[in-house]
Predict the 3D structure of the following.
Amino acid sequence: MTPSEKISAAIRDAASGTAIVAFVTAGYPKREEFRAQLTRIGNAADVVEIGVPFTDPMADEKLASAAVKSGVSGFIIPDLPYDEGEDLRAALAPHGLALIQMVTPVTRPERLAKLCAASQGFVYAVTMTGTTGRSASVPGEVTRYLDGVTALSKLPVCAGFGIRGREQVEQLKGHVAGVIVGSALVEVLESGQDAAAFLQALRPT
């Protein structure tokens, strides 16, 4: 099983039927405690996304090799348009590493189909336009959009942006394979609360 396939399998095999993808920022809030914190979060979540601020123009192949040695299974690069990602895709492919594509409610149908076909690991379906952090309600247009993405994708689809509580996860169950929890988890970590307990409490019944 390739690293990319491991991501898909972890999402599909979530015990609750809706996978929890936990986003954390590398070394935050305390660098010296991050490794232990990551272990606890990894035990509570199905997949962990580690945010790494990155500005150094490192060669793609060097990045891919380092990822394999570190046990990384894939990448989400929000600022890299699909049309400009060929070099990175070529560098990741020999290692079986995923390059996860993001789609939004305003992605045009023809581009949506292309992104779903090109994504690896899972498809990241943004629930709203704008910045993350706000709580996302789950009105009918959101679930219809997510149903459309799921229908197009052969991979699991995970909804992200504004996921903050179990009620939202319950509303999204059946429309997506998983949810991505970022800002709410960061706030839990900042306040010194139990991050693993918070993630477990999100799981639908």
Remarks:
- The chain has one domain: 3-202.
- The domain at 3-202 is CATH 3.20.20.70 (TIM Barrel).
- The beta strands are 19-25, 47-51, 74-76, 98-103, 123-126, 157-160, 178-181.
- The radius of gyration is 16 Å.
